[in-house]
Every structure is written in C-alpha cells, then in structure tokens.
Design brief:
By secondary structure, this protein is α/β, with parallel strands linked by helices. The protein contains twelve helices and eight strands. The model has no long low-confidence stretch (mean pLDDT 89). Magnesium ion binds next to helix 1.
C-alpha cells in the first residue's frame, strides 16, 4: 500500500496526477486516502467533490479547538508548554470526506518561520504527516507544494516514492532538479518524474534529456479534457479518459513501490 508524495513547480499538474492516481487505486479496490497538503487546496475539486461538500470541510490546520485539545494548550495561544507527541491516529477517520471511493483530508497551511515554527499547530500537523506515512494500512497520496522542508525528515524518509511532476520547460525542470537533490540529501528512496502536458515525442525527449539519472515513470499528454474538467469542477478521472489510460500505465510502473 504505497505512500506517495506528488510534488513539482506550481501549475505543472500535481493535483491532476494525484487525483488520477487516487481514483485508479480506488478502482482497483484499494482503500485510498488523498491528502491535500497544499495551502491553496484544490485536490477536492479534481476528485469531483462538489463546492458544497468542500465548503463543509475544514483544514486540520484551522481546527483551533482540536489542536488545543491534542497539544494541551488553550485555543490560539502560543508559547508555554505543549505536548510534542499529540494523538493524531483518529484524525483521518474523523475528518476525511468520501467521494467515488476516495477519502480526502485537507491539511491547510503549515506555518513557516525562519527555523520552522515551533508551535502547537505545526507539532500536530507534523505528527499527522508522519502518521500518514508510517501508520496507515491504505494507499496514501499526498498532493503538496514544491518544497520538502515542511515534511520533516522522518516523514520524507518514510515516503515510498516522490513523484515530481514536470512540464516541458526549463523552469519546472529546474524545480525538479532541486527537489530531486533535496530528496537525495534527506535520504529519500525513490524519486521519479512524470512529464505532463507533453505535446509529442520532442517534449518527452526534452524532459528525459534534462533530468539525467532520474527515473521517468511516464508522460501525460496535453489534454483539452483536463482543462475542461477543471473549468467545470468535474473529477479528472471521469472527464478525461485520455489521461486515465496513461495514468494507469504510470501507476503500474509505480507498482507496490
Ligand atoms: N495534461 C494536461 N493537459 C492540459 N492541461 C492540464 C493538464 N494537466 C493539468 N492541466 C491544467 O493545468 C492547470 C494546473 O493543473 P494542476 O492544478 O493539476 O497543477 P498543480 O501543479 O496542482 O498546480 P498548483 O501548483 O496551483 O497546485 C489546471 O488548469 C489543469 O487543468
Ligand atoms: Mg495543486
């Protein structure tokens, strides 16, 4: 039951790939937990949750009472003593919403300070992230920002595969190189690339050539269906069959990772 982290530069298609993989694992009969760890959360929409359902979901980072209860603090209060090992194992089951066989949990914004903010929210979220990677008997797919800093070393090391999404273009490839280096530095096992929005063999060759030594899992074509699914707020899995077939190949190459 793989634990995957999908990363890459802004707008490359992280959320699109995360949603496709989540539905593909669910279609195979696996229990799937999709985690929106991007402060600008929109994985729910790509999974086909309605705006009403999404409006009812609150990011864990904003649950002041829960954070206070678990860390032994007063809601919204900083400083002072709090527990460094708050209970988190019940959070996915309590707060995830379900649609189409996929459970979605929205994490919200992890506060960042110079050396990382040492506060109750971050302690709870970091513990939760670690639990998601080491303590769940289900497929976990994390849709996250480009950086790995906010994951924490132990969590990053527990991820089975970092899937870096790139599009044909220097900027996203530079980000991919930086992510790959960072992942190697913290001892992450598999780092793989998915090329998205490719228009043909030249784009595929450009991506492969630009990332020597990195395993390319596959490519997703530039797809009008993807754009329309996004505009209409439809599940990408339901609205873009041309991407589903290619994402299935990517999933097979991931294997049990
Ligand atoms: N294969 C594709 N073909 C065409 N458009 C695509 C494709 N994949 C994604 N897109 C479009 O590109 C935009 C960004 O995709 P997506 O939200 O998945 O990227 P992201 O990396 O998660 O972005 P962000 O950094 O904002 O979270 C969306 O409008 C999406 O519909
Ligand atoms: Mg996204």
């Amino acid at each position: 039951m793989p634990k995957l982290a999908i990363t890459g530069k802004g707008g490359v298609g992280k959320t699109t790939l995360a949603a496709l993989l989540a539905h593909l694992y669910a279609a195979e009969g696996q229990t799937v937990l999709a985690i929106d760890a991007d402060p600008d959360a929109n994985l729910g929409s790509a999974l086909g949750f309605t705006p009403e359902a999404l409006a009812r979901m609150h990011p864990i980072a904003d649950m002041k009472d829960l954070i206070a209860e678990r860390t032994g603090t007063q809601p919204g209060q900083y400083g002072g003593i709090f527990t460094l090992n708050p209970r988190v194992d019940d959070i996915p089951d309590r707060f995830a919403a379900v649609r189409g066989g996929v459970r979605l949990l929205v994490l919200g914004t992890v506060q960042r300070g110079g050396a990382g903010c040492f506060c109750p929210e971050n302690t709870l979220l970091k513990n939760l992230m670690l639990h998601l990677m080491v303590g769940r008997r289900e497929v976990v797919i994390l849709d996250m920002e480009a950086g790995l800093e906010h994951l924490g070393r132990a969590t990053a090391a527990a991820v089975d595969a970092f899937v870096v999404v790139v599009e044909p273009g220097r900027r996203s490839l530079q980000t991919a190189q930086a992510v790959a280096q960072l992942a190697r530095d913290i001892g992450v096992g598999r780092i793989m690339v998915v090329g998205n929005k490719v228009r043909g063999p030249e784009d595929e060759a450009f991506i492969a050539r630009s990332l020597p030594g990195v395993e390319v899992l596959g490519y997703l074509p530039f797809s009008q269906q993807a754009i329309e699914a996004d505009l209409a707020g439809q599940a990408i899995y339901e609205a873009a069959p041309e991407l589903v077939a290619r994402a299935q190949e990517i999933k097979e190459r991931l294997g049990g990772t």
